[in-house]
């Protein structure tokens, strides 16, 4: 499993754009993690799935609501990472009013999730391989804070918990 001091593994993430901007076309756009993290301090939170109860009612709303607090603490970007496709993440971001606050990053094939050792097999429940619930801070691609939840818990990865440690 990834740990404090490690570099974020190389992977491709996808993000859905509703409008063409900054060289990105409408629809899913692919990004290499090494390009995304260069020179930035990023708060990342991962979760099992879009539109799921805890993720939709607590996890994403907390980061959306506290986006300005993260900026005050020196965070350049906030990412939500989930093993869903970019279309689903885009729709969920619209529903959560995340635009301009939280980047909804799709790891549809669990490439980054597996490379970090944070996969969670929910095949028996019809959900396939998912991401464990976690939060981390990346500084130029290096993990400086990592909070991994115990299965079924939502205690250490919330926006409030992360802010308290920044």
What can you see in these coordinates?
This protein has about 170 residues and is an alpha/beta fold. Helices cover about 30% and strands about 30% of the residues. The strands form three sheets. It has a five-stranded mixed beta sheet with strand order 5-4-3-8-9. A two-stranded antiparallel ribbon has the order 1-2. The chain has a two-stranded antiparallel ribbon with strand order 6-7. The longest helix is centred in the middle third of the chain and has 13 residues, at about 55-65.
Task: Describe the SSE topology.
Elements: E1 12-17, E2 27-32, H1 33-37, E3 41-47, H2 53-65, H3 67-72, E4 77-82, H4 86-95, E5 103-106, H5 111-115, E6 119-122, E7 128-131, E8 134-139, E9 142-148, H6 159-165
Parallel strand pairs: 3-4, 4-5
Antiparallel strand pairs: 1-2, 3-8, 6-7, 8-9
């Amino acid at each position: 499993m990834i740990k404090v001091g490690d570099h974020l593994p190389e992977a491709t993430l996808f993000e859905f754009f509703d409008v063409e901007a900054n060289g990105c076309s409408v629809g899913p756009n692919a990004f290499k993690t090494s390009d995304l993290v260069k020179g930035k301090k990023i708060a990342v939170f991962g979760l099992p799935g879009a539109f799921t109860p805890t993720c939709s009612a607590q996890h994403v709303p907390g980061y959306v609501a506290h986006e300005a607090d993260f900026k005050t603490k020196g965070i350049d970007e906030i990412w939500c990472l989930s093993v869903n496709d970019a279309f689903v993440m885009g729709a969920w971001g619209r529903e959560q009013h995340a635009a301009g606050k939280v980047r909804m990053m799709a790891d549809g094939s669990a490439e980054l999730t597996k490379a970090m050792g944070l996969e969670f097999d929910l095949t028996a429940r019809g959900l396939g391989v998912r991401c464990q619930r976690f939060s981390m801070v990346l500084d130029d691609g290096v993990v400086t804070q990592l909070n991994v939840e115990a299965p079924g818990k939502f205690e250490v990865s919330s926006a409030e918990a992360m802010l308290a440690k920044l």
